[in-house]
Specification:
Blueprint (H helix, E strand, L loop, with lengths): L2 H10 L3 E4 L6 E4 L1 H13 L3 H21 L6 H10 L1 H12 L5 H13 L2 H4 L2 H14 L15 H19 L2 H15 L9 H13 L6 H14 L3 H18 L2 H18 L2 H18 L2 H17 L5 H15 L24
Length: 353
């Protein structure tokens, strides 16, 4: 029997329940039937095979989401990933229990970080899975990745870079420096060496957010070019965002405005709603730093409204503080009273002065 009629028959018999309240129909089993099915599966020795298939399906789901990042469907993918987070956790947990599958688990965890899924849920969880999988992985094991050219050092370096990025956004600068040193060590095995895009990305982010180094502008601009050359649009967009931020922090009015214009144009052309909200935020940031505080208010408010509309729980943390400082700069200290620290890019990083 074909899958769709078979599934419809199971729904008609109340063996499978269907929930059509969201944008996609979702199916589930009653708990008693679920337990019975799990028992029969164990009796027949099919549990391991099914868990591997389940993990592979969700690995492919995460990879597809990562490939679609910074595109017209990025918000749709975020909604889907958040809805499927229990399944994704189960898949990652199974991979983490088997050294031969830990590489597949890393692909899931890295792509969930790439799509900012962990940022919309719990940053600490993303770091936990990356640390566990990196510790579990058997370096001699091959992965079932859909991109067979991805080598073990490339995957490991990408995971270490993402782990360092999460640590930076948590304000755990000492851990970020440790992870960055590990990333540099692994990078020696990469074709591009220390100049590989994931490595230069985290080098630039660390230089900007921790050391307050104006040289971060050039590093992040180079990273952007490297990601673009390799066809990694989503990663290139993140590098563009950080480059535009670095120009706002450390550049001149002309260089900051130019970088902002590039960033806004890319975000609009992508059709990516999440990207557009950050481009608006960056526009407000540049006005606050180099223009008129009053003109920063509208884009910052618009960015906040759009982020709240798509369920972004991370962006408003940055946006509210930036907005408070913009309001204060207009002379309205009473309305800006909610913020008591200088504007920062991530919690725990250096301020702007």
């Amino acid at each position: 029997m074909r899958p769709v009629p078979l599934l419809a028959g199971l729904v008609d018999k109340s063996i499978v329940a269907v929930n059509s309240s969201g944008d996609r129909a979702r199916y589930s089993l009653l708990e008693t039937i679920r337990r019975y099915g799990r028992q029969r599966l164990q009796e027949e020795g099919g549990t391991t095979r099914l868990r591997v298939r389940h993990s592979e399906f969700y690995r492919m789901t995460a990879v597809r989401a990562g490939q679609a990042w910074c595109g017209p469907r990025e918000v749709d993918w975020l909604v889907r990933l958040r809805t499927d987070l229990p399944n994704l956790r189960t898949a990652v947990d199974h991979c983490a229990s088997r050294p031969d599958l830990a590489g597949d688990g890393l692909e899931i965890a890295v792509n969930l970080a790439r799509t900012r899924c962990w940022f919309f849920s719990t940053l600490g969880e993303g770091r936990h899975w990356l640390e566990r999988l990196l510790a579990t992985r058997d370096p001699s094991a091959s992965t079932t990745t859909s991109t067979p050219t991805t080598s073990t050092p490339t995957l490991t370096a990408g995971a270490l870079a993402m782990k360092a990025w999460i640590a930076l956004c948590q304000g755990d600068n000492s851990a970020a420096e440790t992870f960055l040193a590990e990333c540099r060590a692994v990078a020696r095995e990469l074709p591009d060496g220390p100049s590989a895009a994931p490595v230069t990305y985290i080098e630039g982010a660390h230089a900007m957010l921790v050391r307050g180094d104006p040289a971060s502008r050039a590093v992040l601009a180079e990273t952007r070019d490297r990601f673009r050359a390799s066809g990694q649009a989503g990663d290139a967009h993140m590098a563009t965002m950080l480059w535009a931020m670095a120009e706002a922090f450390f550049g001149t009015r002309a260089s900051a405005s130019s970088a902002r214009d590039v960033y806004v144009a890319e975000a609009e052309a992508s059709g990516a709603e999440w990207a557009r909200t950050w481009a608006q935020w960056c526009s407000g940031l540049v006005e606050l730093r180099h223009g008129e505080a009053q003109r920063a208010l509208a884009p910052l408010r618009q960015a906040l409204a759009r982020q709240q509309a798509i369920g972004d729980s991370w962006g408003p943390v940055w946006g509210l503080e930036t907005l408070a400082w913009a309001v204060a700069a207009t002379g309205d200290g009473t309305r800006a009273r909610g913020s008591s620290a200088p504007p920062t890019a991530c919690a725990g990083t250096r301020g702007w002065h």
